[in-house]
Amino acid sequence: SAGKFHTTDSAAQKYMWESWKAEYGKAYDASIEKYRFEIFVENLAVIDERNAAELAVGGEPVHGLTKFTDLKQEEFEARYLLADIAKKTGGAKVSDHPELPE
Fold first, then answer.
1. Which of 29, 63, 74, 99 is the 20 to 30 A CA-CA neighbour of 47?
2. Tens digits of per-residue pLDDT, 25-83?
3. Which CATH number describes the domain made up of 10-88?
4. What's 79's DSSP letter?
5. CA–CA separation, 11 vs 14, rounded Å?
């Protein structure tokens, strides 16, 4: 069975957080570290939920820690998915009413 990432044990959470920061070279100002840590812990539960869903349909537990584990889903999408599309299109907008050939 898949290992669990989420725990309510605060010492284990802190250990995972410090290990994760070291592995991915992350450092935070004191003002933001608590916020990022809370997101990290929330994402541990999301990882477990997604792996459980994969297993429930006969799949493999493929979700784990990444360099993005300190981001909310919305932050990840805004920074990496939407921003990437804008870069690829040179910021071009898609018209609602394209000119059609006659």
1. 29
2. 999 999 999 999 999 999 999 999 999 999 999 999 899 999 999 999 999 988 888 65
3. 1.10.287.2250
4. I
5. 5
